[in-house]
Amino acid sequence: MPIKVPNALPAAHILESENIFVMDADRAYSQDIRPLKILILNLMPIKYITETQLLRLLGNSPLQVEVDFIYTETYVPSHTPSDYLAQFYGTFDEVRHKKYDGMIITGAPVEHMEFEEVAYWDEVAEIMEWSKTHVYSTFHICWGAQAGLYYHYGIPKFQVPKKIFGVFKHHKCVEHERLLRGFDDEFYVPHSRHTEEHKEDILKVPELTILAESDSEAGPYIIANLEKRQFFITGHAEYDPTTLKQEYDRDFKAGMNPQIPQNYYPDDDPSKPPIVRWRSVAHLLFANWLNYYVYQETPYELDELYKESEY
Ligand SMILES: CC(=O)SCCNC(=O)CCNC(=O)[C@H](O)C(C)(C)COP(=O)(O)OP(=O)(O)OC[C@H]1O[C@@H](n2cnc3c(N)ncnc32)[C@H](O)[C@@H]1OP(=O)(O)O
Ligand SMILES: N[C@@H](CCO)C(=O)O
Protein backbone atom coordinates (compact mmCIF):
# COMPACT_ATOMS: atom_id res chain seq x y z
CA MET A 1 0.00 0.00 0.00
CA PRO A 2 1.23 3.48 -0.77
CA ILE A 3 2.31 6.50 1.10
CA LYS A 4 0.88 9.74 -0.30
CA VAL A 5 3.04 12.87 -0.23
CA PRO A 6 2.97 16.35 -1.82
CA ASN A 7 3.46 16.23 -5.60
CA ALA A 8 7.08 16.16 -6.80
CA LEU A 9 8.57 15.96 -3.30
CA PRO A 10 12.27 15.06 -3.83
CA ALA A 11 12.05 12.24 -1.25
CA ALA A 12 9.53 10.46 -3.49
CA HIS A 13 12.14 9.70 -6.17
CA ILE A 14 14.61 8.39 -3.63
CA LEU A 15 12.00 6.15 -2.02
CA GLU A 16 10.71 4.85 -5.36
CA SER A 17 14.24 3.71 -6.16
CA GLU A 18 14.05 1.76 -2.89
CA ASN A 19 10.80 0.08 -3.98
CA ILE A 20 8.57 2.07 -1.66
CA PHE A 21 5.26 2.79 -3.38
CA VAL A 22 4.78 6.56 -3.32
CA MET A 23 1.67 8.29 -4.69
CA ASP A 24 1.37 11.92 -5.56
CA ALA A 25 -1.37 13.97 -3.97
CA ASP A 26 -3.65 13.90 -7.05
CA ARG A 27 -3.97 10.17 -7.26
CA ALA A 28 -6.97 8.53 -5.63
CA TYR A 29 -6.61 5.48 -3.48
CA SER A 30 -7.87 2.39 -5.20
CA GLN A 31 -9.67 1.04 -2.18
CA ASP A 32 -12.35 2.54 -0.03
CA ILE A 33 -10.19 2.66 3.07
CA ARG A 34 -9.58 5.89 4.89
CA PRO A 35 -5.85 6.66 4.78
CA LEU A 36 -4.12 7.53 8.03
CA LYS A 37 -3.43 11.25 8.19
CA ILE A 38 -0.01 12.07 9.58
CA LEU A 39 1.29 15.60 10.22
CA ILE A 40 5.05 16.18 10.34
CA LEU A 41 6.36 19.33 12.01
CA ASN A 42 9.83 19.33 10.45
CA LEU A 43 12.21 21.47 12.51
CA MET A 44 15.40 20.01 11.04
CA PRO A 45 17.47 22.40 8.91
CA ILE A 46 18.04 20.15 5.89
CA LYS A 47 14.40 19.33 5.34
CA TYR A 48 14.59 16.84 2.49
CA ILE A 49 16.95 14.56 4.42
CA THR A 50 14.57 14.24 7.35
CA GLU A 51 11.58 13.94 4.99
CA THR A 52 13.26 10.99 3.28
CA GLN A 53 14.25 9.32 6.55
CA LEU A 54 10.76 9.56 8.04
CA LEU A 55 8.84 8.69 4.87
CA ARG A 56 11.06 5.65 4.33
CA LEU A 57 9.87 4.27 7.67
CA LEU A 58 6.25 5.40 7.40
CA GLY A 59 6.07 4.03 3.85
CA ASN A 60 7.22 0.55 4.83
CA SER A 61 3.73 -0.47 5.87
CA PRO A 62 0.64 -2.07 4.34
CA LEU A 63 -1.33 0.87 5.77
CA GLN A 64 -2.29 3.82 3.62
CA VAL A 65 -0.57 6.89 4.96
CA GLU A 66 -1.11 10.48 3.84
CA VAL A 67 1.43 13.01 5.03
CA ASP A 68 1.25 16.79 5.47
CA PHE A 69 4.39 18.76 6.32
CA ILE A 70 4.45 22.02 8.24
CA TYR A 71 7.20 24.46 9.14
CA THR A 72 7.22 27.32 11.60
CA GLU A 73 5.98 30.76 10.63
CA THR A 74 7.60 32.47 13.61
CA TYR A 75 11.07 31.33 12.50
CA VAL A 76 11.60 31.08 8.77
CA PRO A 77 14.15 28.32 8.01
CA SER A 78 17.35 29.68 6.45
CA HIS A 79 18.67 26.51 4.78
CA THR A 80 15.49 25.74 2.86
CA PRO A 81 14.50 27.92 -0.10
CA SER A 82 11.16 29.65 0.33
CA ASP A 83 9.80 28.18 -2.92
CA TYR A 84 10.51 24.67 -1.55
CA LEU A 85 8.50 25.52 1.56
CA ALA A 86 5.75 27.06 -0.54
CA GLN A 87 5.52 23.96 -2.73
CA PHE A 88 5.71 21.19 -0.16
CA TYR A 89 4.93 22.68 3.24
CA GLY A 90 2.05 24.36 4.98
CA THR A 91 1.89 26.38 8.16
CA PHE A 92 0.15 25.56 11.41
CA ASP A 93 -2.52 28.14 10.59
CA GLU A 94 -3.32 26.21 7.43
CA VAL A 95 -3.88 22.91 9.24
CA ARG A 96 -5.16 23.91 12.68
CA HIS A 97 -8.76 23.24 11.64
CA LYS A 98 -7.91 19.65 10.71
CA LYS A 99 -7.54 16.51 12.80
CA TYR A 100 -4.77 13.95 12.42
CA ASP A 101 -4.32 10.33 13.36
CA GLY A 102 -0.67 10.94 14.13
CA MET A 103 1.91 13.70 14.33
CA ILE A 104 5.70 13.64 14.36
CA ILE A 105 7.69 16.51 15.86
CA THR A 106 11.30 16.18 14.70
CA GLY A 107 14.58 17.01 16.35
CA ALA A 108 16.14 20.46 15.96
CA PRO A 109 19.66 21.84 16.49
CA VAL A 110 18.51 24.28 19.17
CA GLU A 111 19.25 22.29 22.30
CA HIS A 112 21.86 24.76 23.55
CA MET A 113 19.16 27.38 23.97
CA GLU A 114 16.58 27.55 26.73
CA PHE A 115 13.24 26.45 25.29
CA GLU A 116 11.77 29.93 25.63
CA GLU A 117 14.71 31.45 23.73
CA VAL A 118 14.04 29.40 20.62
CA ALA A 119 12.42 31.71 18.08
CA TYR A 120 9.55 29.32 17.37
CA TRP A 121 8.94 28.19 20.98
CA ASP A 122 5.51 29.81 21.39
CA GLU A 123 4.36 28.35 18.09
CA VAL A 124 5.64 24.86 18.92
CA ALA A 125 4.02 25.12 22.37
CA GLU A 126 0.74 26.08 20.72
CA ILE A 127 1.01 23.12 18.35
CA MET A 128 1.66 20.78 21.29
CA GLU A 129 -1.39 22.16 23.12
CA TRP A 130 -3.49 21.80 19.96
CA SER A 131 -2.28 18.21 19.54
CA LYS A 132 -4.11 17.19 22.72
CA THR A 133 -7.43 17.70 20.97
CA HIS A 134 -6.58 17.34 17.30
CA VAL A 135 -4.10 14.46 17.07
CA TYR A 136 -4.62 10.90 18.20
CA SER A 137 -0.97 10.00 18.81
CA THR A 138 2.17 12.15 18.79
CA PHE A 139 5.70 10.92 18.27
CA HIS A 140 8.35 13.37 19.49
CA ILE A 141 11.96 12.89 18.37
CA CYS A 142 15.14 14.18 20.09
CA TRP A 143 14.72 17.95 20.67
CA GLY A 144 11.03 17.40 19.86
CA ALA A 145 10.96 14.93 22.78
CA GLN A 146 12.76 17.34 25.09
CA ALA A 147 10.35 20.10 24.11
CA GLY A 148 7.33 17.83 24.66
CA LEU A 149 8.54 16.56 28.05
CA TYR A 150 9.16 20.16 29.11
CA TYR A 151 5.92 21.60 27.76
CA HIS A 152 3.57 18.84 28.90
CA TYR A 153 5.31 17.70 32.11
CA GLY A 154 7.77 20.45 33.13
CA ILE A 155 10.82 18.17 32.76
CA PRO A 156 14.03 20.20 32.29
CA LYS A 157 16.95 19.37 30.03
CA PHE A 158 20.56 19.57 31.13
CA GLN A 159 23.79 20.13 29.24
CA VAL A 160 26.08 17.08 29.34
CA PRO A 161 29.87 17.43 29.72
CA LYS A 162 30.55 15.27 26.64
CA LYS A 163 28.28 15.02 23.58
CA ILE A 164 26.17 11.83 23.63
CA PHE A 165 27.32 10.71 20.24
CA GLY A 166 27.26 7.23 18.77
CA VAL A 167 25.24 4.04 18.61
CA PHE A 168 24.28 2.86 22.09
CA LYS A 169 23.02 -0.43 23.49
CA HIS A 170 19.48 -0.33 24.93
CA HIS A 171 17.05 -2.66 26.63
CA LYS A 172 13.33 -2.75 27.21
CA CYS A 173 12.08 -1.62 30.62
CA VAL A 174 8.61 -3.16 30.34
CA GLU A 175 7.25 -6.45 29.05
CA HIS A 176 4.46 -6.94 26.50
CA GLU A 177 4.68 -3.39 25.19
CA ARG A 178 3.24 -3.22 21.69
CA LEU A 179 5.52 -0.37 20.60
CA LEU A 180 8.46 -2.71 21.25
CA ARG A 181 7.00 -5.83 19.68
CA GLY A 182 9.73 -7.68 17.81
CA PHE A 183 12.58 -5.82 19.53
CA ASP A 184 15.43 -8.01 20.73
CA ASP A 185 16.37 -7.97 24.43
CA GLU A 186 19.25 -5.71 23.53
CA PHE A 187 19.16 -3.32 20.61
CA TYR A 188 21.17 -0.40 19.26
CA VAL A 189 20.08 3.13 18.39
CA PRO A 190 22.01 6.30 17.42
CA HIS A 191 22.03 9.35 19.68
CA SER A 192 23.54 12.71 18.88
CA ARG A 193 22.95 15.43 21.44
CA HIS A 194 24.56 17.70 23.97
CA THR A 195 21.70 17.63 26.46
CA GLU A 196 19.71 15.08 28.43
CA GLU A 197 16.74 14.61 30.73
CA HIS A 198 17.39 13.13 34.14
CA LYS A 199 15.75 9.77 34.72
CA GLU A 200 14.67 10.74 38.22
CA ASP A 201 12.74 13.74 36.84
CA ILE A 202 10.86 11.44 34.46
CA LEU A 203 10.14 8.88 37.20
CA LYS A 204 8.66 11.63 39.39
CA VAL A 205 5.83 12.17 36.88
CA PRO A 206 3.09 9.57 37.50
CA GLU A 207 1.73 9.90 33.92
CA LEU A 208 5.04 8.84 32.36
CA THR A 209 6.66 5.43 31.89
CA ILE A 210 10.11 4.69 30.53
CA LEU A 211 9.62 1.94 27.95
CA ALA A 212 13.27 1.51 26.94
CA GLU A 213 16.61 2.87 28.09
CA SER A 214 20.35 2.54 27.80
CA ASP A 215 22.66 1.86 30.73
CA SER A 216 25.17 4.10 28.97
CA GLU A 217 25.14 7.89 29.01
CA ALA A 218 22.31 7.79 26.45
CA GLY A 219 19.90 7.07 29.36
CA PRO A 220 16.11 6.92 28.89
CA TYR A 221 15.25 6.27 25.23
CA ILE A 222 11.48 5.86 24.86
CA ILE A 223 9.06 7.50 27.28
CA ALA A 224 5.29 7.21 26.98
CA ASN A 225 2.40 8.86 28.74
CA LEU A 226 -0.20 6.69 30.46
CA GLU A 227 -2.69 6.78 27.62
CA LYS A 228 0.13 5.94 25.18
CA ARG A 229 -0.94 8.90 23.07
CA GLN A 230 2.41 10.65 23.44
CA PHE A 231 5.78 9.03 22.80
CA PHE A 232 9.06 10.80 23.50
CA ILE A 233 12.05 9.29 21.69
CA THR A 234 15.44 10.66 22.69
CA GLY A 235 17.48 8.99 19.92
CA HIS A 236 17.49 8.94 16.15
CA ALA A 237 16.44 5.49 14.87
CA GLU A 238 15.53 7.22 11.60
CA TYR A 239 19.11 8.35 10.90
CA ASP A 240 20.72 7.13 7.66
CA PRO A 241 23.82 4.93 7.87
CA THR A 242 26.07 7.95 7.30
CA THR A 243 24.25 10.68 9.25
CA LEU A 244 26.56 10.42 12.27
CA LYS A 245 29.51 10.35 9.90
CA GLN A 246 28.29 13.54 8.22
CA GLU A 247 27.97 15.24 11.61
CA TYR A 248 31.44 14.03 12.62
CA ASP A 249 33.00 15.12 9.30
CA ARG A 250 31.24 18.49 9.49
CA ASP A 251 32.62 19.20 12.95
CA PHE A 252 36.05 17.80 12.06
CA LYS A 253 36.29 20.09 9.02
CA ALA A 254 35.22 23.00 11.19
CA GLY A 255 38.25 22.29 13.40
CA MET A 256 36.10 21.36 16.40
CA ASN A 257 38.07 18.21 17.26
CA PRO A 258 34.86 16.14 17.63
CA GLN A 259 34.83 12.86 19.49
CA ILE A 260 34.50 9.75 17.34
CA PRO A 261 30.93 8.38 17.45
CA GLN A 262 30.88 5.37 19.79
CA ASN A 263 30.15 1.86 18.47
CA TYR A 264 30.03 3.13 14.92
CA TYR A 265 33.28 2.79 13.00
CA PRO A 266 35.11 -0.54 12.98
CA ASP A 267 38.06 -0.11 15.39
CA ASP A 268 36.80 3.46 15.95
CA ASP A 269 38.51 4.33 12.70
CA PRO A 270 36.65 7.14 10.85
CA SER A 271 38.29 6.15 7.59
CA LYS A 272 36.37 2.83 7.61
CA PRO A 273 32.70 2.53 6.54
CA PRO A 274 30.40 2.63 9.58
CA ILE A 275 28.53 -0.44 10.84
CA VAL A 276 24.75 -0.03 10.77
CA ARG A 277 23.11 -1.79 13.75
CA TRP A 278 19.79 0.06 14.11
CA ARG A 279 17.90 -0.32 10.81
CA SER A 280 15.61 -3.14 11.94
CA VAL A 281 14.78 -1.28 15.17
CA ALA A 282 13.84 1.82 13.17
CA HIS A 283 11.46 -0.15 10.97
CA LEU A 284 9.87 -1.94 13.93
CA LEU A 285 9.48 1.26 15.95
CA PHE A 286 7.63 3.17 13.25
CA ALA A 287 5.61 0.18 12.03
CA ASN A 288 4.50 -0.65 15.59
CA TRP A 289 3.55 2.95 16.28
CA LEU A 290 1.57 3.21 13.06
CA ASN A 291 -0.14 -0.14 13.49
CA TYR A 292 -0.83 -0.35 17.23
CA TYR A 293 -1.09 3.24 18.38
CA VAL A 294 -2.42 4.97 15.31
CA TYR A 295 -4.34 2.60 13.01
CA GLN A 296 -5.81 0.30 15.67
CA GLU A 297 -6.79 3.04 18.11
CA THR A 298 -7.76 6.14 16.19
CA PRO A 299 -11.46 6.70 15.39
CA TYR A 300 -12.48 5.76 11.83
CA GLU A 301 -14.19 9.12 11.50
CA LEU A 302 -11.49 11.57 12.54
CA ASP A 303 -14.13 14.16 13.34
CA GLU A 304 -15.12 11.94 16.27
CA LEU A 305 -11.76 12.71 17.86
CA TYR A 306 -12.46 15.19 20.65
CA LYS A 307 -15.70 16.27 19.09
CA GLU A 308 -16.33 18.51 22.05
CA SER A 309 -13.23 20.58 21.22
CA GLU A 310 -14.00 24.17 20.39
CA TYR A 311 -10.41 25.15 19.84
C1 LIG B 1 19.13 17.56 19.56
C2 LIG B 1 18.49 17.13 18.31
O1 LIG B 1 17.31 17.20 18.12
S1 LIG B 1 19.53 16.51 17.14
C3 LIG B 1 18.90 17.07 15.65
C4 LIG B 1 19.67 18.20 15.13
N1 LIG B 1 20.65 17.77 14.18
C5 LIG B 1 20.87 18.39 13.05
O2 LIG B 1 20.22 19.36 12.74
C6 LIG B 1 21.95 17.87 12.20
C7 LIG B 1 22.07 18.63 10.92
N2 LIG B 1 22.37 20.05 11.13
C8 LIG B 1 23.52 20.59 10.78
O3 LIG B 1 24.41 19.89 10.31
C9 LIG B 1 23.71 22.08 10.99
O4 LIG B 1 22.68 22.57 11.81
C10 LIG B 1 23.71 22.82 9.63
C11 LIG B 1 24.96 22.47 8.91
C12 LIG B 1 22.51 22.44 8.79
C13 LIG B 1 23.61 24.33 9.87
O5 LIG B 1 24.62 24.77 10.70
P1 LIG B 1 24.97 26.34 10.83
O6 LIG B 1 24.81 27.01 9.54
O7 LIG B 1 26.25 26.42 11.52
O8 LIG B 1 23.89 26.82 11.86
P2 LIG B 1 22.76 27.93 11.71
O9 LIG B 1 23.13 29.05 12.58
O10 LIG B 1 22.48 28.25 10.32
O11 LIG B 1 21.46 27.21 12.36
C14 LIG B 1 21.17 25.88 12.12
C15 LIG B 1 19.74 25.67 12.48
O12 LIG B 1 19.51 25.92 13.85
C16 LIG B 1 18.18 26.40 14.03
N3 LIG B 1 18.23 27.71 14.67
C17 LIG B 1 19.31 28.49 14.83
N4 LIG B 1 18.96 29.57 15.56
C18 LIG B 1 17.66 29.46 15.85
C19 LIG B 1 16.73 30.24 16.60
N5 LIG B 1 17.08 31.39 17.20
N6 LIG B 1 15.48 29.80 16.72
C20 LIG B 1 15.10 28.68 16.12
N7 LIG B 1 15.93 27.90 15.40
C21 LIG B 1 17.19 28.29 15.28
C22 LIG B 1 17.55 26.46 12.68
O13 LIG B 1 16.86 25.24 12.46
C23 LIG B 1 18.75 26.56 11.77
O14 LIG B 1 18.54 26.05 10.49
P3 LIG B 1 17.38 26.62 9.55
O15 LIG B 1 17.41 28.11 9.68
O16 LIG B 1 17.65 26.14 8.20
O17 LIG B 1 16.08 26.06 10.10
N1 LIG C 1 22.67 15.95 16.12
C1 LIG C 1 23.10 17.25 16.23
C2 LIG C 1 23.18 17.82 17.60
C3 LIG C 1 22.81 19.26 17.49
O1 LIG C 1 22.05 19.71 18.56
C4 LIG C 1 24.35 17.51 15.40
O2 LIG C 1 25.47 17.15 15.77
O3 LIG C 1 24.14 18.11 14.38
Structure characterization notes:
This protein has 9 helices and 12 strands. The protein is globular and about 50 Å long. 41% of the residues are buried. It is of the alpha/beta class and 311 residues long. A hairpin with a 4-residue loop joins strand 11 (220-225) and strand 12. It starts with a strand and ends in a 16-residue tail after the last helix. It has helices at residues 10-16, 47-58, 82-88, 92-95, 121-134, 143-153, 199-203, 243-253, 279-295; strands spanning 3-5, 22-24, 36-41, 65-71, 89-91, 100-105, 135-141, 158-172, 186-196, 208-213, 220-225, 230-233. Residues 44-46, 75, 77-80, 107-111, 118-120, 142-143, 192-193, 247, 250 line the site of acetyl coenzyme *A (ACO). Keywords: Acyltransferase, Amino-acid biosynthesis, Cytoplasm, Methionine biosynthesis, Transferase.
Helical residues, percent: 25-40%
Distinct compounds present: acetyl coenzyme *A, L-homoserine
The CATH topology comes to Rossmann fold
- Biggest sheet overview: 12 strands, mixed
| Low-confidence parts | none
**CATH H-tier superfamily:** Class I glutamine amidotransferase (GATase) domain
**Domain unit count:** 1
CA gyration radius, whole angstroms: 19 Å
- What general outline do the C-alpha atoms trace? globular
CATH architecture: 3-Layer(aba) Sandwich
> How many E strands?
12
Overall pLDDT? 94
Specify the CATH class.
Answer: Alpha Beta
Number of helices in the DSSP assignment: 9
Distance between the termini: 34 Å
Name the beta content range.
15-25%
Question: Structural class, from helix and strand content?
Answer: alpha/beta
Query: Helix-strand pattern, N to C?
Result: EHEEHEHEHEHEHEEHEEEHH
GO molecular function: homoserine O-acetyltransferase activity; homoserine O-succinyltransferase activity
Pathway: Amino-acid biosynthesis; L-methionine biosynthesis via de novo pathway; O-acetyl-L-homoserine from L-homoserine: step 1/1
Keywords: Acyltransferase, Amino-acid biosynthesis, Cytoplasm, Methionine biosynthesis, Transferase
Family: Belongs to the MetA family.
